[in-house]
Amino acid sequence: EAQVTQNPRYLITVTGKKLTVTCSQNMNHEYMSWYRQDPGLGLRQIYYSMNVEVTDKGDVPEGYKVSRKEKRNFPLILESPSPNQTSLYFCASSPGRWNSPLHFGNGTRLTVT
Amino acid sequence: AQTVTQSQPEMSVQEAETVTLSCTYDTSESDYYLFWYKQPPSRQMILVIRQEAYKQQNATENRFSVNFQKAAKSFSLKISDSQLGDAAMYFCAYRNTDKLIFGTGTRLQVFP
After folding, report:
1. pLDDT digits 0-9 by tens, A64-111
2. Is A46 helix (H, G, I), strand (E, B) or coil?
3. Residue of A nearest to B10 (CA)
4. How confident is the model at residue B99 (pLDDT cuts 50, 70, 90)?
5. How far is Cα A61 from Cα B57, in angstroms, rounded to an integer?
6. DSSP designation for A73
7. Nearest residue on chain A to B45, judged by CA atoms?
8. Set of chain A residues whose Cβ sits within 8 Å of the Cβ of B9
9. Looking at the predicted structure, is the pLDDT value of residue B97 above 90?
10. Interface of B with A (CB under 8 A)
11. What pLDDT does B109 receive?
12. With an 8 Å Cβ cutoff, are A90 and B45 in contact?
């Protein structure tokens, strides 16, 4: 089954404790992206990648890192999480053609205390 | 910079009736794509419909259709014969090359 898999679905952590949210897709998509969803703000892009070893900042990249060492994986890294990073996170992918809609993972609810 | 605006934070509709969700956007580009996504309580993001900017004909998908007015930069979603399962958050989105920009969403309630 074609899908984008995010893990974990829920995560509660404390300020400053490094964490990684994994994202993997099995559709051989070139494009992958991370979004955060906050009430009243919609979804905002954190980072995106057009292909392996190619990543770029979105609209809200501060406090986040990503890597794209393999085509299928695009982990999101929070080196020192802070409470303002409490949010719902989505990973998404699509073929390289930008007329294609995104396929989304099921989301990760992160709480930083 | 491109922006997407959804001016209706909440809407409600009676089952079997029709409802229209509004979306406006701002861009200087002539070639782009527009999308409507649905997010039910399960929080999954589901593609509802998409529209190519170079096509004048409005896209339709079963009970869902759009009114695309390129000059006015407007992209509204019409849901006909509303069903209880249509209750969700709806997001309008704009895509041009590497960026997909979302509006703030409209929460749709459907009453029996």
Report:
1. 999 999 999 999 999 999 999 999 999 999 987 677 889 999 999 999
2. strand
3. A40
4. confident
5. 37
6. B
7. A104
8. 40
9. no
10. 4, 6, 9, 33, 35, 43-45, 47, 50, 52, 91, 95-105
11. 98
12. yes
Contact A14, A92 (CB under 8 A): no
Q: Nearest residue of A to residue B89 by CA position?
A: A42
- Of the candidate ranges A12-26, B28-42, B72-86, the one whose mean pLDDT is the lowest: B28-42
The residue length of chain A stands at 113
List CB contacts (< 8 A) between A104 and chain B. Answer: 44-45
Interface of A with B in 27-66 (CB under 8 A): 31, 33, 35, 40-45, 48, 50, 56, 58
Alpha-carbon B112 to chain mean position:
23
Residues sharing a CB contact under 8 Å with residue A82, sequence separation 6 or more, in sequence order:
A15, A16, A63, A112
CA distances from B21 to A63, A93, B42, B67 (A): 34, 26, 21, 10
CA distance B96 to B2: 9
User: Exposed (0-12), middle (13-18) or buried (19+): which is B74, by Cβ within 10 Å?
Assistant: middle
